[in-house]
Specification:
This protein is 28% helix and 26% strand. By secondary structure, the chain is of the alpha/beta class. The structure holds flavin-adenine dinucleotide. The site of flavin-adenine dinucleotide has 41 residues, from helix 1, strand 2, helix 2, strand 12 and strand 16.
Length: 396
C-alpha cells in the first residue's frame, strides 16, 4: 500500500535535527514529508539542555558549532517566545592556575577565529556570579553562546516546514528504510528520491551497522530562583582528565532558564541503556554542582530525567550519503552537541541535495569516513572500533 504521492525527501525522525532538515529542504522548494514515531521533539531534543555552544575539540567541531551558532543568531528573530532564545554567554570556570592557563589558550584560539570572548579575573568572576564558591581562579566568557528550549524550536521548525508545503506524519514509526522507500508500522510504503535518517540514538534500530552508541545523560531542574546564576556555567576541569577512558563521568554544568529555574548537569555513561535514574551518578553530579555553587544545596529540585545522546567514535556527527545506499542520507550521531549543530546539519543536507557547495567543508562529517564499518556485514564490529576519543568528557 502506498501512503502518499512520492516526495523528493522523506525525513525519518522529528527531533530537532529532522525538523531542521525538513525546514531547510522545504525552503529549497522540495516536496518533503517528516515522519515522527512519538511527539515532535520528544527524544533527546526534549532531554537536552539547550546550550548553543562553540566548541574547539577539533577544527571540524569548531567549524560546525561556530557555523551553527551564526545560523541560530539569524533564526532567533523567527522563533516564537516559547523557544526562549537568550544570548547568556558561557563562563568556562578555572578552579586553579593550570585551568586558567587553559582558559587563556582557549581565549587566544577563539580570538584568532573572531569568536567574541574575554578572560575574567577571580574578582570579576565573583562579581558576575556571586553564588560561585570562593577561591576560583577566573574564567573565560564566550559571549555569543546562547540558551534555547529545544522542543519548542523543533516544533517551530516543523511548523515552518509545513507552511512551506511539507507533510508532517506524527505517530507513525518507520520500520524499514532505504533504496528509495520507507515502510511504516501501519503497513504503508512511501517512495522518495531521497531519505534522511534523523532518528538520533534510535538510528541504529534500523541501521545496526552505524558507528553510533547511546550515551546516557541525567539532568535536574530546580524550582524558580531568578538571578541565582546569569550565564551558562561550565567547569574547565575536564581538560585535566581528557584522556581518561572511564565510561562514566560527571561535570559541573549549570544553566539559567528564562523561567528562573536552573538546569543542573551533566553526566555521561556508555552501556547504561535503561531510562531510569542512576542514583550514584545523580549524587556525583549534584556533589560536583555543590562544589562550584555551594548555595545550590538549599534549592528545591522538582524533576530529574535522563536522555540518550547518539555518540560516534570521533565525536563528529554523520552527515551525508550512506556509503552503500545512494538514496539515503544520514543526519545522526550528534552526541552532546545536537541542539547546537542541528541548524548547520540541515544546511549541509540541503546543500548536498541542491548540489551546491556549503559554507564550511563537508568532508569531516561524511559517513564515508567509517566506510569500512558500513560495508561490513558484522554488525557487532562497531564495538571493536576505537571509542577512546568518544570517552573524553567535554563537559557539555
Ligand atoms: C542530558 C543531555 C543534555 C544535552 N545537552 C545539550 C546541550 O546543552 N546542547 C546541545 O547542543 N546538545 C545537547 N544534547 C544533545 C542533543 O540533545 C541531541 O544531540 C539532539 O537532541 C539530537 O537531536 P536528534 O533530532 O538527532 O535526535 P532526537 O531528538 O532523539 O530525535 C530523534 C527522533 O526520532 C524519532 N524516532 C525514533 N525512531 C523512530 C522511528 N522508527 N520512526 C519514526 N521516528 C522515530 C524519535 O521519537 C525522536 O523524536 C544533550 C543531550 C542529553 C541527553
Amino acid at each position: 500500500m502506498t501512503a502518499a504521492a512520492a516526495c523528493d525527501v522523506l525525513v525519518a525522525g522529528g527531533g530537532i535535527v529532522g525538523a531542521a532538515c525538513a525546514f531547510a529542504c522545504a525552503r529549497e522548494g522540495m516536496r518533503v514529508a517528516l515522519l515522527e514515531r512519538d511527539v515532535l521533539g520528544s527524544g533527546a531534543t526534549a532531554a537536552g539542555m539547550g546550550h548553543v555552544v562553540v566548541m574547539d575539540d577539533s577544527d571540524a567541531q569548531f567549524a560546525l558549532t561556530r557555523y551553527s551558532q551564526q545560523l541560530w543568531r539569524r533564526l532567533a528573530e523567527q522563533l516564537p517566545p516559547a523557544a526562549e532564545y537568550e544570548q547568556r554567554g558561557t563562563l568556562w570556570i578555572a578552579a586553579d592556575r593550570e585551568e586558567m592557563e587553559a582558559a587563556e589558550r582557549k581565549c587566544e584560539w577563539y580570538s584568532a577565529r573572531s569568536v567574541p570572548c574575554r578572560l575574567l579575573t577571580a574578582d570579576e568572576l565573583s562579581r558576575e556570579e556571586p553564588n560561585l564558591a570562593p577561591g576560583l581562579v577566573g574564567a573565560l566568557l564566550v559571549i555569543e553562546d546562547s540558551v534555547v528550549y529545544p522542543p519548542a524550536v523543533a516544533l517551530s521548525l516543523a511548523r515552518q516546514a509545513q507552511q512551506l508545503g511539507a507533510s508532517l506524519l506524527v505517530g507513525r514509526a518507520v520500520t524499514a528504510l532505504g533504496e528509495g522507500h520507507v515502510a511504516l508500522d501501519d503497513g504503508c510504503e512511501m517512495p522518495a528520491s531521497r531519505i534522511v535518517l534523523a532518528m538520533g540514538a534510535d538510528s541504529t534500530q534500523l541501521r545496526p551497522d552505524l558507528p553510533v552508541r547511546k550515551r546516557k545523560g541525567h539532568l535536574v531542574i530546580t524550582d524558580r530562583y531568578p538571578g541565582f546564576v546569569r550565564h551558562q556555567l561550565v567547569e574547565l576541569g575536564y581538560l585535566k582528565s581528557a584522556h581518561s577512558l572511564t565510561a562514566d563521568s560527571v561535570a559541573f554544568n549549570v544553566q539559567p532558564r528564562q523561567t528562573g529555574q536552573l538546569l543542573i548537569g551533566s553526566s555521561r555513561q556508555f552501556g547504561a541503556e535503561h531510562q531510569g535514574v542512576d542514583q550514584p551518578i545523580l549524587a556525583a553530579m549534584l556533589a560536583r554542582a555543590t562544589k562550584y555553587l555551594p548555595a545550590i544545596a538549599r534549592l528545591s529540585a522538582i524533576r530529574v530525567w535522563t536522555g540518550f545522546r547518539a555518540a560516534t567514535p570521533d565525536k563528529l556527527p554523520l552527515i551525508g550519503p550512506d556509503a552503500n545506499d545512494p538514496s539515503l542520507l544520514l543526519a545522526t550521531g550528534h552526541e552532546g552537541l545536537g541542539i547546537t549543530t542541528s541548524l548547520a546539519t540541515a544546511e549541509l543536507i540541503a546543500d548536498m541535495l541542491a548540489g551546491r557547495q556549503s559554507a564550511i567543508p563537508r568532508e569531516p562529517y561524511l559517513p564515508a569516513r567509517f566506510a569500512h564499518i558500513d560495508s561490513n556485514p558484522n554488525k557487532e564490529d562497531k564495538h571493536e572500533m576505537d571509542w577512546s576519543h568518544a570517552g573524553v568528557d567535554d563537559g557539555i
